[in-house]
Amino acid sequence: MHAWICEQPTGPEAVVWCERPTPEPGPGEVRVAIAAASLNYPDWLIVQNRYQFKPTPPFVPGSEFAGVVDAVGEGVTTLRVGQPVACLLGTGGFATHAIAPAQRCVPLPAGFDWIDAAAFVMTYATSYHALIDRAGLRPGETVLVLGAAGGVGSAAVQIAKQAGARVIGAASSADKCALAQAQGADATLNYAEHTAAGSFRDELKRLTDGHGPDVIVDPVGGDLAEPAFRSIAWRGRYLVIGFAAGPIPSLPLNLPLLKGASIVGVFWGEFARREPQANAAMLQTLVQWYMQGRIKPVIDDVLPMTALPEAYARLAQRQVRGKLVLRNTA
């Protein structure tokens, strides 16, 4: 097998494409011949030692991938050789093969596109857990999605629309706003045109007829967090998902008091670990939605697996709309 190996997490430049012995699955494990893997923001942080999960070097980065089970370990009865699966493990995806616990693999029906499968689990599971489970989103409510052209953001736009919400997609450029609108956003907010906090809040007030958004999806953090929260509706729910902008914002605690609003943490990975049955049911719902054509990942580009350095550079420069996918070729 071949894999991108991170000997020391000092940055993307330290990851090297190497040949390694093809591993055999142990009890409860399967080996997956990887068709494609997607690049997520944590995959960039992890090779810089900046992510909360810190694997012991050397490790293979790549949290999310899809492929075919080509070997099963002792005791595995839920998967068979030849079964298409999607996996989200935290590491191991930027390779030709990976070992995965069978219980961490999502069986896929025939006809599920490999590229979409590799870009599916993290963003849709995060967004569904955030909006449906944590926020209790109701039909007719207004959802503001920050970073609406990114992987999590575009998934959140689609899921909010499926839940019957009115969606405002916020992004940093006109073309990203257009992408959010193409995913179903009812209105958009280009925050490059509303850089001042007052201007941002005035535009949100206009777009919501003074009501404010009932739910705010925030995978971005940074300077937008406080003006967005100050605009939230009474009994609103602010979903803290991540900090793609870099800085972790601080909010004055009188703001949720004044609005009767909630700051809600969204940690899908921990939810999946603590509540595996609920997580499995959620994933099956999402697979059904995909097969019914109700949701579909936004794919920015598909690159060869050997082009990981280029993919990292594009992510770091905030050039990605939706997801970048790396594909193994025969």
TrEMBL record:
E.C. numbers: 1.3.1.103
CDD domains with a match to the protein in the record: QOR1
SMART domains on file: PKS_ER
Ranges where the Enoyl reductase (ER) domain occurs: 11-326
Alphabetic keyword roster: Oxidoreductase
Tagged with keyword Oxidoreductase: yes
InterPro entries, per database record: ADH-like_C (IPR013149), ADH-like_N (IPR013154), ER (IPR020843), GroES-like_sf (IPR011032), NAD(P)-bd_dom_sf (IPR036291), Quin_OxRdtase/zeta-crystal_CS (IPR002364), Zn-ADH-like_protein (IPR051397)
Enzyme class: oxidoreductase
SUPFAM superfamilies: GroES-like, NAD(P)-binding Rossmann-fold domains
Keyword field contains Oxidoreductase: yes
Any GO MF annotation of the entry: 2-chloroacrylate reductase activity
Domain of life: Bacteria
Protein name per the record: 2-haloacrylate reductase
